[in-house]
């Protein structure tokens, strides 16, 4: 039945009835419609002015749950279990196969209707202690189902509610009476005042729907995901599609050992100076290291080994203990590779990470003290520079970057090493987008990785949108007006540190 029809019937009953008003729930029952339809008709009539007056009322009633309705029809579990039990008794294991046994056995035992003989031959056996009982639970539920809940005391209702057979629900109804402008004819009110109505004067003869000045307006479109979050999500999805596993990068504080020494970076390297790295005052020193691994790192630095002559200097453990804000996520890669080396059998892995790193820089137009590094690592037997170039091409192609060049470079912990360049259509020139290389044996073999295992790796900065399709290609759309692409490229957000 349509809401308009319900509204018309409601008005007719108000006009023809002798009572002072109508209860919406009773009216729904009389009309044979859902109560919500009557509520909708009441609200519709209220919006037309003072045709009716409606007072909302609340009342509580008891309703049977689905399980309660089943018991009202078939009987309680404890009575049905008793009826299923033969006079000669039944093995407990057989009795518990009944679907009603879980609840029925417990309730029948507490009512002393049955007893359990644990010493019976063949195992515990259940016997009746009574011949017949009244199903009080079923009777109470039937009374409530018939609308006679007042005949059931509150203690019994509470017990039935605990058994989840009964629910107390709140019923909201409307008491409807005639309004000051009562009428049985419903005319549609105009909602818009048009220029034509004003010009012709027809608005004087029309009835307009009242404006609700307390209604909330439509929220303006505002707020967007930060471009870096969008790019981060894109990078992460690409790594996952390529079968990489994300490394845990929740430790911003690292020891110099994992940040530098484990990467075969000498202790006199300029990057370990306070002008380049944030060192901590409290706690100033780390204390826990894998000592056998630390000794191997010390030896390869100071004396050489694994086919290398090392750096030939007095390696200091106090320098390795210094705590700092990590300067690259490669410290996490070192930890993961060491953990990989401790496994009984080597398994090829592909790792990635995207997280924050810190550099003690002088802040200017092109430098920030922190940025986000993206790192990929692949470890397997026999990997070569060709494998690294192939993985990089696949990685950047998924970003939409197809024009790549590789240039030889130097890194303390990779040999060979390559810088990665991409041609930027907006700037009309080649720009650096990343750094890469093959980890040195002096870094891998002290960890305990098998000889013949190679590790290829690459890193880039999340903040450099020149290498990301979303970034500088759409930077004009982001700021809403023309910008100088070179100025954006040179800004701190475009900074690259690998």
Automatic annotation (TrEMBL):
Listed cofactors: Mg(2+)
Xref: Gene3D superfamilies: 1.10.10.2320, 1.10.10.2330, 3.30.1370.240, Bira Bifunctional Protein, Domain 2
Superkingdom assignment: Eukaryota
InterPro entries documented for this protein: aa-tRNA-synth_II, aa-tRNA-synth_II/BPL/LPL, Phe-tRNA-synth_IIc_asu, Phenylalanyl-tRNA_Synthase, PheRS_DBD1, PheRS_DBD2, PheRS_DBD3
Domain Aminoacyl-transfer RNA synthetases class-II family profile: 230-492
Main localisation: cytoplasm
PROSITE patterns from the UniProt entry: AA_TRNA_LIGASE_II
EC number of the protein: 6.1.1.20
GO molecular function: ATP binding; metal ion binding; phenylalanine-tRNA ligase activity; tRNA binding
Alphabetic keyword roster: Aminoacyl-tRNA synthetase, ATP-binding, Cytoplasm, Ligase, Magnesium, Metal-binding, Nucleotide-binding, Protein biosynthesis
Claim: Transmembrane helix is one of the keywords in the record: no
Family: Belongs to the class-II aminoacyl-tRNA synthetase family. Phe-tRNA synthetase alpha subunit type 2 subfamily.
Name the record gives this protein: phenylalanine--tRNA ligase
Species this chain originates from: Eleutherodactylus coqui
